[in-house]
Amino acid sequence: MIYLDFNRTTPLAPSALEAMQPFWATHFMLPGQEHPHAQAISEALESAREGLAMLAGCDPFEIVFTGGGTEANNLAVLGGTRKKVPGHVLVSALEHDSVLGAAMNLGVNGWQVETIPVQNDGVIDPERVKSLLRPDTQLVCLTAASAALGTIQPVRAVADICHNQGIHVHCDATQMFGKLAVDVTELRVDTASISGHKFYGPKGTGALYVRRGLQLSAVSFGEIREMGLRPGAENIPGCVGLGAAASLAARCCNDAADNLRLLCDRFINGLKAVISPEPILLCESSSRLPNTLAIEMPGDAKRLQRSARQLVVATAQSESPADEMTRSLRSIGRTDAQIGRTLRVSLGWTTSRDSVDRAVELFAEAWDGART
């Protein structure tokens, strides 16, 4: 099996697994208690928090552990508006379902939710955001990078515009961490979400960066933990594994990004050499993640996916409601027919030149089979 879609198949880093092992059974107490074992667990938890802070470019006390990027997005959107008088919210057309769903929930409760359109190059125009702001705008949500298109968004430019008017900016940065260096203070966002399995940490782990001085409200209730924003017992093994993966990503992501760019170029050029008409790389002129490609094939993407069963790639879901990939492709003006021909491919740290070359061969065989 050749995993080309690492957004769905990201493996756990061996160093993260090794770090987690003692906390499944040997160190199983809750942190914060007086027992020496519990104090050791508290130290491990704070060390993991420091690893996340190093990855995000912030202070450890600005990191709140969550059960993944989805929970982090919900906490940012709902917790940031919970105690405010309903007003206006802007959400980009490229957002993950967890951001969009939380914003739609605000709409049920009296907020006015408006979508920021995307240019055909897959990038939000900051001036368009500025034109959509209103006196009662209180929250703007903008992803750091599109999971479907790979396009990098002008988060800092949007944040500068919004902060001049005192508007909270939330950034879903889950696709960016581990692929490129991220400094949340340079982005000037108020909150930013992190997902562990996007950079070889354990699934079901994540964190929310909360800018110092920002007041969020809890959206679930129980025993006070994580700065009062996430109740209940911490997932200590998960947090420790997340911290280990974050430390690894902070050290390695720049070198990995250079290699991934070369492999992506090799992959798309290989496809163009063996498939005719040539596949089209969407948003090619835009700044993109080093590992993510949205490719319009000359034939039906799902049929190619079924024919090349040894490959793990992503296609848009045509069923209603539209999934994130379908919504993103529609936002840049792609027709339903074009969407049906589009694959999303994302390479990972363990992708080799040999696996890329073999993937090209499998696609070529699948394309030949689809034409007969």
If you had to describe this structure to a student in words, what would you say it looks like?
This protein is α/β, with parallel strands linked by helices. The protein contains 13 helices and 13 strands. Strands 2-8-7-6-5-3-4 form a 7-stranded mixed sheet, with helices on both faces. Helix 7 (155-163) links the parallel strand 5 and strand 6. Helix 9 packs across helix 13 (353-371). 51% of the residues are buried.
* Rg of Cα set: 21 Å
How many β-strand runs? 13
Low-confidence stretches: none
Amino-to-carboxy terminus distance: 25 Å
Proportion in helices: 40-55%
The largest β sheet comes out as:
7 strands, mixed
Molecular shape: globular
Strand content: 5-15%
Give the strand line-up of the largest sheet. Answer: 2-8-7-6-5-3-4
Q: SSE order in H/E notation?
A: EHHHEHEHEHEHEHEEHEEHEEHHEH
Q: Helix/strand/pairing class, anyone?
A: alpha/beta
The overall pLDDT, averaged over residues, is 93
Number of helices: 13
Helix and strand arrangement:
Blueprint: E1 2-3, H1 6-9, H2 14-20, H3 36-56, E2 63-66, H4 69-81, E3 88-92, H5 97-108, E4 112-116, H6 126-132, E5 137-141, H7 155-163, E6 168-172, H8 184-187, E7 191-195, E8 206-210, H9 236-274, E9 280-281, E10 292-296, H10 301-307, E11 311-312, E12 314-315, H11 324-331, H12 336-339, E13 342-346, H13 353-371
Parallel strand pairs: 1-11, 3-4, 3-5, 5-6, 6-7
Antiparallel strand pairs: 2-8, 7-8, 9-10, 10-13, 12-13
Helix pairs in contact: 2-9, 3-9, 4-5, 6-7, 9-13, 10-13
